Amino acid sequence: MRTIYVDNNATTAIAPEVLEVMQPYFTSEYFNPSSMYTAAQSTAAAIRQARETIANCLNAGAPEQLLFTGSATESNNSALFGTVQANSQRHHVITTAVEHPSVLEVCKELQRRGLEVDFLPVNRQGELEMRDYVKALRRDTLLVTIMLANNETGVCYPVAELVRIAKETDPQIIFHTDATQAIGKLPVDLQGDLRHVDLLSFSGHKLHAPKGVGALFVRRGTRWQPFILGGHQERGLRAGTENVPYIVGLAKACELAVAGVDEEQTRVRQLRDRLQSALYECIPALEVNGSEAQRLPNTLNLAIHGIEGEAILFELSRYGICASSGSACTSGSLDPSHVLKAMAVPFTAIHGSLRISLSRYNDEQDVKRIIEVLPEIVANLRKLSPYWDDQRNCLKV
User: Fold this and answer.
1) What does 40-52 look like in DSSP terms, one character per residue?
2) The CATH fold of domain 4-11+260-395
3) Is there a catalytic annotation at residue 394?
């Protein structure tokens, strides 16, 4: 049975081109880039080239503004804690209720440490209400941290407009965005529409690089302090021996991702939209979370009334289909998704969420197979549900 992988917002397969460029740095080019002997110069040069490549992909300007980390979680923690450490005179932070846990939990920790944090609500479509954002901004605001795109629903946020408003309120406000889900799916231009963003985070394993590598963009002049100390690496801004093969792989993956944005916006979006339309027709009492909002082209988050998402995933897995019910970082919890709770998804559907996230490696056959099996899975599970009237084929009133 062929595996159909549609959980790409959780992690992605390593692209063959990425694996190929990484291989020498596991074998012949294994040297520590900090070593002084001639043989190590090739690994140090590889890191410099990777930094330049990624800076070009993001139109980031000076490559030195990019730091390599171990994950987007580390990048987010570093961005937020490092900003607070460097700016003790201000104590107000703005974020949203639908951020990834690596931002949301840091903001809760900052609140416990005495900072004022506004967790902005979203509407039923998962969109941020601009009036709430404008109202929250203050002259003493230190930091705004709002993601480019949500990992569960794919809903995109107008970061270029949000950062413009923040800087017009006070140029000293520092703006961070988690771009983990956006790179390769949306254009990311740090000298264009995102030229006022101070800090930007992302990781490799969401764009067909390996797990265990990420990056943090820190715009020159941003008031920020290092988060991990203990070594001279990354110009003293992130201690620890560099993970050379993974950094090289991240650079290649960024090249491929940026080159593939048009495919994401056309072919992948068409696959997603075809799947969405077909499931609407075949499954009663089905909603698409964020359907009226601007979304990532690869993401489909379904609210399936009357059944549990875990049961759907188990049944899909029997057919070799790998999907998820939300963020991989919270999949061990039985609590409903904080994102869907913030969106006020009804009780009868919030536990029945299903996230399907495609990639450039998915095709028509994958979509066709999901359309074949998912409606039957839902129908069978609803026969066992106390919330579903099987005779009338609707929710019980």
Assistant:
1) GHHHHHHHHHHHH
2) Aspartate Aminotransferase, domain 1 (3.90.1150)
3) no
